[in-house]
Amino acid sequence: MPTGYTGKILRVDLTNDKVATEPTKMEWAKQFIGGKGLGAKYLYEELKPGTDPLSPDNMLTIWTGPLVGTMVPLTSRYVVITKSPLTGTFLDTYAGGYFAPELKYAGFDGIIVTGKAAKPSYLWVNDGKAEIRDAKNVWGKDMFKTEELLRDEVGHKYARVAGIGQAGEKLSRIAGVTSDITRNAGRGGAGAVFGSKNLKAVVAKGSLGVEVPKIDEFMEMAKQMLWKDVVENPDHAGLITDGTPIIVDMSQDAGILPTNNWHTGQFDGYLGIDSDALKTRVFVKKKACFSCGIACGSFAKVRDGLFKGSSTEGPEYETLGLAGSNCGVKNIEAVVKFSEDCDRFGLDTMSAGSAVGFAMDIYEKGIITKEDTGGLDLRFGNEEAYAKMPEMISLRTTKIGDLLAEGTLRAAKAIGKDTEKLVIHSKGSEYPAYDPRGSIGMALAYATSDRGADHNRAWPVASDAYGDGDPWSTDGKAAICHEEQIMKSYKWSMIYCDFYGVSDENMAMYYTAVTGLPADADWLKAVGVRVWNLVRAFNVREGFSRKDDTMPDRMATEPLPSGKTEGKTVSREAFEKMLNEYYALWGWDEQGRPTKKTLEDAGLSDIVGTLDYL
Fold first, then answer.
1. What residues form DSSP beta bridges with 19?
2. For residue 13, what are the contacts with CB-CB under 8 A and spacing of at least 6?
3. pLDDT digits over 67-125, tens only?
């Protein structure tokens, strides 16, 4: 068996209270690597099409990659893969920290959970063994308390916990999975899948290690490449010194910073939530994940004022944009409080920030009132009211809290009165914090992302708005999305952190050094093509097609009012042109469905018979 893998998968049947160990299907691992790819293969093969994401029949899976737990830089990530309760699509959602290497050291490449426990439970995984335990002592508690209590209960101070707060227990479709207090696999509602199965957490502790051939040579190579690829890499300079908050100023200047529920791309209070505000007002110290030389995280704590004592890791750019400017919030202290409570209760800060910005918008328009908000004056920028929203959403208190727990699109559909037109989303997933009206390529990136609107599948904004490209030209935008989606598919299968600018050649070198298997840049790209087509086939099988690869009407009909993007929209004509080019590059039909030849060329002949349109 190749090294780097433990060779074992943990199967958990919650309905029948059973755990079992089985060999990792190495023929699949050689085709899909691990992480996203391997998890997608298991999900495609084993999940019945049309399964309700919150039913016991949905699969909840957690995966590492072959490099996790080694000295390869920036690989300390795990991925939760399931069918999303927010979008109904394939879902892969990631977190860094220390849980992933601990799960690997505990002896498993991945965990597959099915069924539903008869009572609240947690899974204890330790050195090749596992058991389902009663979670009565932690059910109903937030994630801060849950981690503390579960470590005490298993008797290991450094056991690692990945679990849910009250948001997941109450089946919020924007609930994430939290580990290491502040690390979140946030997008898509994976926390609700935990809750639907009465699964509070997975607790892991291990001492089994990871086998690597020629360990002395590998360690020397890893040290040299860490210095060259990470410390001396100019692409990492800003991340090392500032982290992602530096993007606040970049987006403000480009006119794409989402403000007041996307009604403008510039925020007059941006200096109160940018990198300098973080460093001078709330910064305590830098923070890194396992085996990381960048340390992009920052531990922040509010020193005085209304939110004194609140603390969080970050906040990172997406939180600052969506839970900051998008809500009209001008003070980073308030965003720290909002982020802390999202971590506490287990909410995705991106979807939560978008949901609150939407609620503020319809409150100011008179569509909802204090009767719906529990008496809160939910105007843009009202920090005291805003700071109470994560708890309201997580606990489903007040009418608006209960509605927003379903995600912004479902909330709007329930409210009616044309509020659906105010929701900025793709496939029900709220947009990340880059306005496509100032980066036309992002409209395509969001629309074609496999898990709903996402910036971690393709990021043309780098050249569109932050570089020297033309933000409103369609030229080359389909190619950027196509190429980056391929790259991210094999990068997430390893699993590397998004912030590691490692070359394909070095990525392949690391893979071979750890596993002993041959690899080069061309092989990696072939894996990326295979993985992206497999996931697209999953979504097509679930009923998704061209009709879902779209953008909100406001992107085409509501021009931005100021700055470099004044008067700008994304025309439908331009969008459809990019989409046609994109489908052609992938070899999909006009409905965005992989053709038989495309699947066969990608090494997916075995799934052709599972797709009824072929």
1. 12
2. 19, 20, 114, 115
3. 999 988 889 999 999 999 999 999 999 999 999 999 999 999 999 999 999 999 999 99
Using the structure block, give the residue that is written with the tokens 């029948």. Answer: 16
Nearest to 205 by CA among 325, 284, 101, 78: 101
Rounded to whole angstroms, how far apart are CA atoms 510 and 555? 42
CB atoms within 10 A of CB 85: 28
Distance CA 391, CA 549 (A): 33
Q: Which CATH class is domain 8-205?
A: alpha beta
Regarding pTM above 0.90, the answer is yes
Tokens of 537: 């086939």
Residue 398 in tokens: 């007040």
Paired strand residues for 183: 179
CA 224, CA 240: separation in Å to the nearest integer? Answer: 18
Q: What is the CATH number of domain 240-427?
A: 1.10.569.10
Cα separation, 437 vs 264, in Å, equals: 10
Per the DSSP assignment, residues forming a β-bridge with 126 are: 129, 205
Overall fold of domain 439-610? 1.10.599
For residue 128, what are the CA distances in angstroms to 84, 274, 592? 29, 45, 43
- Torsion angle in degrees (nearest 10) through CA of 242, 238, 381, 386: -60
In one-letter notation, the amino acid at residue 239 is L
Q: Do 189 and 84 contact (CB within 8 A), yes or no?
A: yes
| Closest to 528 in 3D by CA, of 3, 31, 45, 25 | 31
Q: Hey, what are 152's tokens?
A: 């005490």
- Exposed, middle or buried: residue 517 (CB in 10 Å: 0-12, 13-18, 19+)? middle
Measure the CA–CA gap between 350 and 258, rounded to whole angstroms: 12
Q: Could you report the per-residue pLDDT of 293-345, keeping only the tens digit for each? A: 777 778 999 999 999 999 999 899 999 999 999 999 999 999 999 999 999 99
Give every CB contact of residue 539 below 8 A, 6+ residues apart in sequence. Answer: 89, 90, 450
User: Using CB atoms within 10 A of its CB, is residue 95 exposed (0-12), middle (13-18) or buried (19+)?
Assistant: buried
Q: What are the structural domain ranges in the chain? A: 8-205, 240-427, 439-610
Smallest CA-to-CA distance from 360 within 335, 386, 338, 321 is with: 386
Q: Using an 8 Å Cβ cutoff, are 440 and 473 in contact?
A: yes
